[in-house]
Amino acid sequence: MTKSFTRVERPTPPGPLSNALTFGWRAVLKFKHVPEQLFDLVMTPIMFTLLFTFVFGGALAGSTGNYLQYLLPGILVQTVLFNAVYSGMGLSTDLSKGLFDRFRSLPIWSLAPFAGLIVGDFLRHLIAGGIILGIGLALGYRADSGLIGVVGAFLVLLAVGFGFGWCFIVLGLLVRTPTTVMTLGFTVLFPLVFASNVMVDPATMPGWLEAFVRANPVTWIVTAVRGLMDGTVTAGAVGLALLAPAVLALILMPLSLRLYRRS
Amino acid sequence: MAVAARGLSKSFGHLKAVDGIDLDVPEGEIFAILGPNGAGKTTLMRMLATLIVPDGGTATILGRDLAQDPAGVRSQIALTGQFASLDEDLTGRENLILLARLWGFSRAGSKARAAELLDAFDLADAATRQVKDYSGGMRRRLDIAASLIVTPGVLFLDEPTTGLDPTARQKVWRLIRQLAESGVTILLTTQYLEEADQLARRIAVIDHGRKIAEGTSRELKAEVGAGFLSVALADPSRLDAAAALLADSLGHEVNRNAEDTHLSVMVDTPAAANAALSALIEAGFEVTDFEMGAPSLEEVFFALTGRPADDTEGDAP
Ligand SMILES: Nc1ncnc2c1ncn2[C@@H]1O[C@H](COP(=O)(O)OP(=O)(O)OP(=O)(O)O)[C@@H](O)[C@H]1O
Ligand SMILES: [Mg+2]
Predict the structure, then answer these.
(1) N or C terminus: fewer CB in 10 A for chain B?
(2) Any CB–CB contact under 8 A between B120 and chain A?
């Protein structure tokens, strides 16, 4: 430590895109250093897939093969939704540690940290979704619509992840304890995911529950993703699936900005 | 002036965390803000670093107005917060490269800048370790390095050495001095008079969000006294009697610490301290412990305000 400090001037300020990509790189590095996080992301959906397929599959759909065909697209939606909670936890951790103080005192595009968060989320959704799909294929799942349908389904999943992601970004900004973010997140998500058509055809449910399930945005999303992968999708179903994510993003994006600037 | 603040204020609910503070920090100097827990040091620093918006008052940093041109302020400053603002999962090197990229360095330039800083901060050996495995001193050094990717005009350091052992503290002090020599204006906060004394040309003492004194270390000491004698008795019930005797012998007001175990009193010369101690012993007081030293923060506060640092005006009887 004998070196004296020579002055270093600022290089040409980078554009917003460069800043956002740098934050995305941070998300990639996190995968490198904390690969365990993937375990958190895929363990629950894998357990669900295996348990439901082999325990209830025969009873619910006549055979495990038929049931897996029904369940897998729903599990992909569930994976993306639960993933979004983990990303809110990550934000809350960063905020509680003062890391964002440093980012906020830098002369950079003030939204770049969020852009990075979203890049990281997309990566997480793609990796976790890919793993679940891979396991499904190994168990005998077949996407009747082929590659194009799967790509379409994943695009819808990313849109869903993006839209619902803002719920947990807002929660992460409001609540500075990561575990509280998780508890609150799952408290909201569990009823939405279970009282939907992820696992069971709503036609088999009691009337009042069926009404709820049919009005549940998670149901609309699952219908579209399932349709895309089975090759039976309609444009209306996709539109309906994107409604909730679009509304959430429109309302919550500006709210997040306000909360972030204020905090 | 590197920093010029007038009447800066910030309340949280009813609590006035910072209550009308004026500051003038000349360019190229180390300036210390000395205050106990809850004095408002962090709140003041965060306002100056554009992280929270003041309720009242104005400030300019190197001529840029905090309210009118926060982006301009951000381009001139760097803040090393009280709590490490590093990504614990990344390595030290990755943390620095990340920030260098955000500042606009090229890929190669970022790597080179990270390597230079790791070298200058004695962290080259730990460069590829995750920050969560760093010691407190290493973290602190990396955190300061992270503020120097681009040399700032003004560097804010919030309690740079709290929680460090003496060796690590010396290391950080040396760094701070070198930085100041290279022309960076440094505004730091501390709870230690010794730290302010060692590093800073000027010191502002704050308490309950207000500035209660400001001056060079020499000026403050003249107000506070050159040294303090601290005494503990075997029989605490006789503290009052001993205090009377000490006040008589030394001619200064005697302070009792918050735990009611020690008396401390300003002394003008070592001979006077010696005489006072002898007088105590001759009067039959059993002295279990005594110490002569520079005034502690507690004693500075007592001398400046006539009340202990942790006492609030509101709850005085
Ligand atoms: N976000 C906040 N909300 C409510 N009160 C706050 C907030 N931040 C600080 N305070 C309060 O404001 C006062 C000043 O806090 P501050 O953190 O500025 O003190 P400090 O001098 O930095 O103390 P320390 O030496 O403990 O770091 C404290 O009483 C604290 O509880
Ligand atoms: Mg503080």
Answers:
(1) C
(2) yes
